[in-house]
Design brief:
It contains five helices and two strands; from the N terminus they run αααββαα. It folds into two domains: 13-76, Arc Repressor Mutant, subunit A; 86-125. Helix content is 56%, strand content 6%. The chain is mainly alpha-helical and 127 residues long.
Length: 127
C-alpha cells in the first residue's frame, strides 16, 4: 500500500491517510479481509504521529470501511450486500452539495461537472 503525505497541503494529514487507504481499496490494492498495518507501523512508515493514524482508522471504522479487531488489527470490510444505508447516502449528498453549488456558481455546466467526476473516478481507479 502506497500513501503519499503532503505536509504542505490544506488537507489534514489524518484525512490524507484515510483517503489514501480508501483509494487503495478502490484500486484493488486492498481487498476485503486484508489487515492494515498496525497504527504504530503505519505511523513510522509515513513519518507521522501515531494519533494521526489512529484518528484515520477510527474515521474509516465509523464509515464502515474497516473493522478494528482488538489485538488483531484493522481489517478491510467487504461492501455491504444490502447496499448503502439511506442515512449514509444522505450524508454523502450533504457533503457533495456545497461543492456542486460552488461549481455551478463558478460557471460549470452539468456536463462539465459530469466530465470532471468521470475523470476523477478514472484517476482514482488508476485507469
Amino acid at each position: 500500500m502506497f500513501i503519499q503525505i503532503e505536509p504542505q497541503s490544506d488537507v489534514p494529514i489524518y484525512a490524507q491517510v484515510r483517503n489514501g487507504i480508501m483509494e487503495g481499496i478502490v484500486r484493488g490494492e486492498l481487498l476485503p479481509g486484508d489487515v492494515l498495518p498496525s497504527v504504530r507501523a503505519l505511523a513510522a512508515d509515513l513519518g507521522v504521529n501515531m494519533h494521526t493514524v489512529n484518528k484515520s482508522y477510527h474515521e474509516l471504522e465509523s464509515k464502515g470501511v474497516i473493522r478494528i479487531v482488538p489485538k488483531s488489527g484493522a481489517v478491510i470490510c467487504p461492501p455491504s450486500v444490502d447496499g448503502i444505508a439511506s442515512s449514509r447516502i444522505d450524508q454523502i449528498s450533504g457533503e457533495l452539495r456545497p461543492i456542486l453549488v460552488e461549481s455551478i456558481v463558478l460557471g460549470m455546466t452539468e456536463g462539465d461537472i459530469q466530465t470532471l467526476v468521470k475523470s476523477i473516478i478514472s484517476n482514482v481507479k488508476g485507469e
